[in-house]
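Exercise 7.
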Amino acid sequence: MQKTRRHYMIVQDGRGRIRKLWGGYSPKIYDSSFLEIAKNEIIEDLKGGVIIADGHFTTGPTTIPEIEWITPKRIKKQKIEGGNDVIRDPNATSRSEHYADIAVLTCKAETQNVAIHKHRARVETPFGVEKWEFEALQKPWAEDLEQLDCTVEFAFGVWKVKRK
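Solution. The predicted structure, written as tokens, is:
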């Protein structure tokens, strides 16, 4: 039996309270595609806000400019002759030698990425906690997908009440 999967998107405030839950939807929908699908609702609910997100949301500023997006900076691979990606040198003794042929993040960008990842860790917490507080979410789902959605919504409702 194949495990049924659904994705859910949440928005939390700075205090860790869940403000919005979207889902469930197919895991084949990439996060940047989700922004396109839910664009109008996101603008209506979050216009003027600030969102700290992972690297899958780098299209956020162009897709929804009404919101300030804070996402990690990425190292962009450069192409060398022949069209191949640059490969790290396994004999390099320092990071700058490893990436001699490609752009390396500045110290400021690396520091910003670390801070973003620390703040984002809070966002993943509800998913792990609810999975262990609700035994039904620990096992592959065998019921209708609508029932899974109801169970997840109930679990996050309980999370929200418990955190007030």
